[in-house]
What we know:
The protein is built from 2 helices and 4 strands. The longest helix has 12 residues, at 78-89. The protein has a 4-stranded mixed β-sheet with strand order 3-1-2-4, sandwiched between helices. It is α+β, with helices and mostly antiparallel strands.
Amino acid sequence: xxxxxxxxxxxxxxxxxxxxxxxxxxxxxxxxxxxxxxxxxxxxxxxxxxxxxxxxxxxxxxxxxxxxxxxxxxxxxxxxxxxxxxxxxxxxxxxxx
Length: 97
């Protein structure tokens, strides 16, 4: 009896997973406080914050203006942007969501 053994090599493609969000955004509320957050879809996240579903901002229609939406890079992260705003405006004026 003849048996053949076929050796097959499977190549595994490694997919790099990115756990950080794509964008960092800064909003200013009507009372002057700043809201800093991160999201893959910043427009959808800002709309959700403005509807009042965010526990940190329970009232709706509180966003006065969008200060900025920037792509998150190695130098521009949620923690770094939060630290900059806290250093300038104080810890009571910044909400990180």
